[in-house]
Amino acid sequence: MPIIVPQNLPAQDVLEKEKIFVMNESRAIHQDIRPLRIAIINLMPNKDLTETQLLRMLSNFPLQIEIDLIYTETYKSKNTPEEHLQAFYKTFSEIKDSKYDGMIITGAPVEKMRFGDVAYWEELKMIMDFSKTNVTSTYHICWAAQAALYHHYRVHNYILEEKLFGVFKHRVNNKHAELLRGYDDEFWVPHSRHTEVYREEIEAIPELEILAESEEAGIYLVATKDGKQIFSMGHSEYDVYTLRDEYIRDVEKGENIQLPKYYFPEDNPHKEPLVKWKSHGSLLFANWLNYYVYQITPYDLYA
Question: Over the stretch 174-190, which tens digit does the pLDDT of each residue have?
Fold first, then answer.
Protein backbone atom coordinates (compact mmCIF):
# COMPACT_ATOMS: atom_id res chain seq x y z
CA MET A 1 0.00 0.00 0.00
CA PRO A 2 1.19 3.55 -0.59
CA ILE A 3 2.72 6.36 1.34
CA ILE A 4 0.40 9.38 1.16
CA VAL A 5 2.38 12.58 0.63
CA PRO A 6 1.53 16.23 0.00
CA GLN A 7 0.89 17.18 -3.63
CA ASN A 8 4.17 17.90 -5.52
CA LEU A 9 6.53 16.92 -2.68
CA PRO A 10 9.98 16.49 -4.37
CA ALA A 11 10.56 13.15 -2.63
CA GLN A 12 7.67 11.68 -4.60
CA ASP A 13 9.63 11.70 -7.88
CA VAL A 14 12.62 9.95 -6.27
CA LEU A 15 10.46 7.27 -4.65
CA GLU A 16 8.40 6.60 -7.77
CA LYS A 17 11.60 6.03 -9.78
CA GLU A 18 12.48 3.36 -7.19
CA LYS A 19 9.08 1.71 -7.85
CA ILE A 20 7.80 2.68 -4.40
CA PHE A 21 4.04 3.21 -4.40
CA VAL A 22 3.35 6.84 -3.51
CA MET A 23 -0.12 8.40 -3.56
CA ASN A 24 -1.06 12.05 -3.26
CA GLU A 25 -3.74 13.27 -0.87
CA SER A 26 -6.40 13.96 -3.48
CA ARG A 27 -6.36 10.35 -4.68
CA ALA A 28 -6.17 8.86 -1.17
CA ILE A 29 -9.39 10.43 0.06
CA HIS A 30 -11.36 8.36 -2.45
CA GLN A 31 -10.23 5.09 -0.85
CA ASP A 32 -12.33 3.79 2.05
CA ILE A 33 -9.33 2.94 4.26
CA ARG A 34 -8.26 4.53 7.53
CA PRO A 35 -4.53 5.29 6.98
CA LEU A 36 -1.99 5.35 9.77
CA ARG A 37 -1.20 8.95 10.69
CA ILE A 38 2.53 9.53 11.18
CA ALA A 39 4.11 12.86 12.14
CA ILE A 40 7.76 13.45 11.18
CA ILE A 41 9.51 16.12 13.25
CA ASN A 42 12.34 16.95 10.86
CA LEU A 43 15.24 18.62 12.67
CA MET A 44 17.83 17.99 9.95
CA PRO A 45 19.26 20.91 7.92
CA ASN A 46 18.66 19.37 4.46
CA LYS A 47 15.09 18.38 5.10
CA ASP A 48 14.32 17.04 1.63
CA LEU A 49 17.03 14.37 1.91
CA THR A 50 15.72 13.20 5.27
CA GLU A 51 12.15 13.19 3.95
CA THR A 52 13.12 10.82 1.15
CA GLN A 53 15.08 8.49 3.44
CA LEU A 54 12.26 8.15 5.97
CA LEU A 55 9.48 7.83 3.41
CA ARG A 56 11.45 5.06 1.74
CA MET A 57 11.63 3.18 5.06
CA LEU A 58 7.94 3.67 5.81
CA SER A 59 6.89 2.44 2.37
CA ASN A 60 7.49 -1.24 3.19
CA PHE A 61 4.13 -1.66 4.94
CA PRO A 62 0.76 -3.00 3.73
CA LEU A 63 -1.42 -0.10 4.96
CA GLN A 64 -1.74 3.48 3.78
CA ILE A 65 0.40 5.90 5.74
CA GLU A 66 -0.50 9.57 5.90
CA ILE A 67 2.41 11.89 6.69
CA ASP A 68 2.52 15.27 8.41
CA LEU A 69 5.91 16.97 8.07
CA ILE A 70 6.68 19.26 11.02
CA TYR A 71 9.40 21.89 11.45
CA THR A 72 10.31 24.03 14.44
CA GLU A 73 8.96 27.54 14.81
CA THR A 74 11.75 28.68 17.11
CA TYR A 75 14.50 27.93 14.60
CA LYS A 76 14.31 28.15 10.80
CA SER A 77 16.58 25.93 8.75
CA LYS A 78 19.21 27.77 6.68
CA ASN A 79 19.58 24.85 4.26
CA THR A 80 15.95 24.33 3.25
CA PRO A 81 14.16 26.99 1.17
CA GLU A 82 11.33 28.78 2.94
CA GLU A 83 9.10 27.96 -0.04
CA HIS A 84 9.58 24.24 0.64
CA LEU A 85 8.67 24.64 4.30
CA GLN A 86 5.62 26.73 3.56
CA ALA A 87 4.40 24.30 0.88
CA PHE A 88 4.89 20.97 2.65
CA TYR A 89 5.42 21.54 6.39
CA LYS A 90 3.33 22.40 9.42
CA THR A 91 4.36 23.85 12.76
CA PHE A 92 3.74 22.29 16.15
CA SER A 93 1.21 25.04 16.87
CA GLU A 94 -0.83 23.80 13.91
CA ILE A 95 -0.89 20.14 15.03
CA LYS A 96 -0.84 20.43 18.85
CA ASP A 97 -4.52 19.44 19.09
CA SER A 98 -4.08 16.45 16.76
CA LYS A 99 -3.47 12.79 17.55
CA TYR A 100 -1.15 10.44 15.67
CA ASP A 101 -0.62 6.73 15.40
CA GLY A 102 3.15 7.25 15.25
CA MET A 103 5.76 9.96 15.35
CA ILE A 104 9.38 10.10 14.18
CA ILE A 105 11.76 12.72 15.58
CA THR A 106 14.95 12.96 13.54
CA GLY A 107 18.50 13.62 14.59
CA ALA A 108 20.11 17.05 14.40
CA PRO A 109 23.72 18.34 14.07
CA VAL A 110 23.76 19.86 17.55
CA GLU A 111 25.28 17.01 19.56
CA LYS A 112 28.16 19.01 21.03
CA MET A 113 25.77 21.57 22.51
CA ARG A 114 24.12 21.31 25.91
CA PHE A 115 20.47 20.42 25.44
CA GLY A 116 19.32 23.67 27.03
CA ASP A 117 21.47 25.70 24.62
CA VAL A 118 19.76 24.35 21.50
CA ALA A 119 17.61 27.12 19.99
CA TYR A 120 14.46 25.01 19.80
CA TRP A 121 14.92 23.03 23.04
CA GLU A 122 11.84 24.40 24.81
CA GLU A 123 9.71 23.73 21.74
CA LEU A 124 11.12 20.22 21.39
CA LYS A 125 10.31 19.52 25.04
CA MET A 126 6.69 20.45 24.34
CA ILE A 127 6.67 18.11 21.33
CA MET A 128 8.15 15.26 23.39
CA ASP A 129 5.55 15.81 26.13
CA PHE A 130 2.84 15.90 23.45
CA SER A 131 4.06 12.54 22.14
CA LYS A 132 3.38 10.84 25.48
CA THR A 133 -0.34 11.62 25.38
CA ASN A 134 -1.18 12.15 21.70
CA VAL A 135 0.93 9.51 19.93
CA THR A 136 0.73 5.71 20.11
CA SER A 137 4.48 5.18 19.62
CA THR A 138 7.38 7.58 18.96
CA TYR A 139 10.62 6.64 17.19
CA HIS A 140 13.59 8.89 18.07
CA ILE A 141 16.73 8.95 15.90
CA CYS A 142 20.33 9.67 17.02
CA TRP A 143 20.46 13.08 18.77
CA ALA A 144 16.69 13.04 19.24
CA ALA A 145 17.02 9.67 21.00
CA GLN A 146 19.56 11.13 23.40
CA ALA A 147 17.49 14.29 23.87
CA ALA A 148 14.37 12.24 24.67
CA LEU A 149 16.22 9.95 27.07
CA TYR A 150 17.45 13.04 28.88
CA HIS A 151 14.09 14.82 28.88
CA HIS A 152 11.98 11.83 29.95
CA TYR A 153 14.45 9.96 32.18
CA ARG A 154 17.44 12.24 32.86
CA VAL A 155 19.82 9.87 31.07
CA HIS A 156 22.79 12.06 30.07
CA ASN A 157 24.85 12.00 26.91
CA TYR A 158 28.65 12.25 26.84
CA ILE A 159 31.11 13.57 24.26
CA LEU A 160 33.21 10.90 22.53
CA GLU A 161 36.95 11.36 22.05
CA GLU A 162 36.41 11.18 18.30
CA LYS A 163 33.36 11.01 16.07
CA LEU A 164 31.73 7.59 15.80
CA PHE A 165 31.53 7.28 12.05
CA GLY A 166 30.87 4.26 9.87
CA VAL A 167 28.80 1.07 9.60
CA PHE A 168 29.16 -1.17 12.64
CA LYS A 169 28.25 -4.73 13.55
CA HIS A 170 25.56 -5.12 16.23
CA ARG A 171 24.04 -7.95 18.22
CA VAL A 172 20.49 -8.60 19.38
CA ASN A 173 20.10 -8.56 23.16
CA ASN A 174 16.47 -9.66 23.34
CA LYS A 175 15.53 -12.16 20.64
CA HIS A 176 11.91 -12.01 21.73
CA ALA A 177 11.54 -8.24 21.22
CA GLU A 178 8.94 -7.63 18.53
CA LEU A 179 10.92 -4.64 17.25
CA LEU A 180 13.70 -7.04 16.25
CA ARG A 181 11.52 -9.91 15.01
CA GLY A 182 13.15 -11.55 11.99
CA TYR A 183 16.59 -10.11 12.75
CA ASP A 184 19.79 -12.09 12.44
CA ASP A 185 21.90 -12.49 15.57
CA GLU A 186 24.31 -9.96 14.08
CA PHE A 187 23.45 -7.03 11.82
CA TRP A 188 24.96 -3.75 10.59
CA VAL A 189 23.91 -0.16 11.29
CA PRO A 190 25.38 3.21 10.17
CA HIS A 191 26.39 5.68 12.90
CA SER A 192 27.46 9.30 12.65
CA ARG A 193 27.66 11.02 16.03
CA HIS A 194 29.89 12.74 18.56
CA THR A 195 28.12 11.56 21.72
CA GLU A 196 27.03 8.40 23.50
CA VAL A 197 24.87 7.24 26.40
CA TYR A 198 26.04 4.98 29.21
CA ARG A 199 24.65 1.52 29.86
CA GLU A 200 24.53 1.94 33.65
CA GLU A 201 22.29 5.01 33.43
CA ILE A 202 19.81 3.22 31.17
CA GLU A 203 19.83 0.05 33.28
CA ALA A 204 18.98 2.17 36.33
CA ILE A 205 15.60 3.05 34.75
CA PRO A 206 13.13 0.15 35.24
CA GLU A 207 10.95 1.28 32.31
CA LEU A 208 13.81 1.01 29.78
CA GLU A 209 15.31 -1.99 28.03
CA ILE A 210 18.44 -2.19 25.85
CA LEU A 211 17.40 -4.22 22.82
CA ALA A 212 20.58 -4.13 20.71
CA GLU A 213 24.16 -2.85 20.95
CA SER A 214 27.61 -3.00 19.40
CA GLU A 215 31.06 -3.70 20.81
CA GLU A 216 32.43 -0.72 18.89
CA ALA A 217 29.44 1.60 18.61
CA GLY A 218 27.92 0.99 22.04
CA ILE A 219 24.21 1.20 22.83
CA TYR A 220 22.04 1.16 19.70
CA LEU A 221 18.37 0.44 20.41
CA VAL A 222 16.55 1.24 23.64
CA ALA A 223 12.79 1.02 24.20
CA THR A 224 10.28 1.51 26.94
CA LYS A 225 8.74 -1.79 27.96
CA ASP A 226 5.32 -0.63 26.77
CA GLY A 227 6.73 0.22 23.30
CA LYS A 228 5.53 3.83 23.37
CA GLN A 229 9.05 5.24 23.11
CA ILE A 230 11.81 3.86 20.83
CA PHE A 231 15.33 5.32 20.97
CA SER A 232 17.76 4.56 18.12
CA MET A 233 21.34 5.83 18.35
CA GLY A 234 22.08 4.87 14.74
CA HIS A 235 20.78 5.67 11.27
CA SER A 236 19.18 2.62 9.69
CA GLU A 237 17.39 4.98 7.31
CA TYR A 238 20.61 6.24 5.68
CA ASP A 239 21.04 6.04 1.92
CA VAL A 240 24.03 4.33 0.31
CA TYR A 241 25.92 7.63 -0.14
CA THR A 242 24.98 9.48 3.06
CA LEU A 243 28.18 8.66 4.94
CA ARG A 244 30.26 9.36 1.83
CA ASP A 245 28.67 12.77 1.41
CA GLU A 246 29.22 13.59 5.09
CA TYR A 247 32.87 12.57 4.77
CA ILE A 248 33.41 14.74 1.66
CA ARG A 249 31.63 17.68 3.32
CA ASP A 250 33.85 17.51 6.41
CA VAL A 251 37.04 17.11 4.37
CA GLU A 252 36.13 20.17 2.30
CA LYS A 253 35.50 22.11 5.51
CA GLY A 254 39.02 21.22 6.67
CA GLU A 255 37.89 19.13 9.62
CA ASN A 256 40.04 16.33 11.02
CA ILE A 257 37.68 13.55 9.99
CA GLN A 258 38.53 9.86 9.67
CA LEU A 259 37.19 7.59 6.94
CA PRO A 260 33.86 6.00 7.89
CA LYS A 261 34.70 2.52 9.20
CA TYR A 262 33.62 -0.66 7.38
CA TYR A 263 32.00 1.38 4.61
CA PHE A 264 34.34 1.77 1.63
CA PRO A 265 35.83 -1.48 0.24
CA GLU A 266 39.50 -1.64 1.28
CA ASP A 267 38.98 1.79 2.95
CA ASN A 268 39.25 3.36 -0.47
CA PRO A 269 36.93 6.40 -0.72
CA HIS A 270 37.06 6.19 -4.51
CA LYS A 271 35.31 2.80 -4.47
CA GLU A 272 31.56 2.28 -4.33
CA PRO A 273 30.35 1.97 -0.72
CA LEU A 274 29.25 -1.48 0.38
CA VAL A 275 25.60 -1.51 1.52
CA LYS A 276 24.93 -4.04 4.30
CA TRP A 277 22.29 -2.36 6.48
CA LYS A 278 19.34 -1.78 4.13
CA SER A 279 17.36 -4.99 4.75
CA HIS A 280 17.59 -4.72 8.53
CA GLY A 281 16.69 -1.03 8.39
CA SER A 282 13.59 -1.77 6.35
CA LEU A 283 12.62 -4.58 8.75
CA LEU A 284 13.12 -2.30 11.76
CA PHE A 285 10.66 0.30 10.49
CA ALA A 286 8.17 -2.37 9.36
CA ASN A 287 8.28 -4.01 12.80
CA TRP A 288 7.81 -0.66 14.52
CA LEU A 289 4.79 0.18 12.38
CA ASN A 290 3.27 -3.27 12.78
CA TYR A 291 3.84 -4.22 16.42
CA TYR A 292 4.17 -0.83 18.13
CA VAL A 293 1.78 1.29 16.04
CA TYR A 294 -0.79 -0.59 13.91
CA GLN A 295 -1.57 -3.41 16.36
CA ILE A 296 -1.85 -1.01 19.31
CA THR A 297 -3.41 2.18 17.96
CA PRO A 298 -7.21 2.62 18.22
CA TYR A 299 -9.27 2.81 15.04
CA ASP A 300 -10.67 6.15 16.18
CA LEU A 301 -7.76 8.25 17.43
CA TYR A 302 -10.11 10.79 19.00
CA ALA A 303 -12.48 8.39 20.76
Answer: 989 999 999 999 999 99
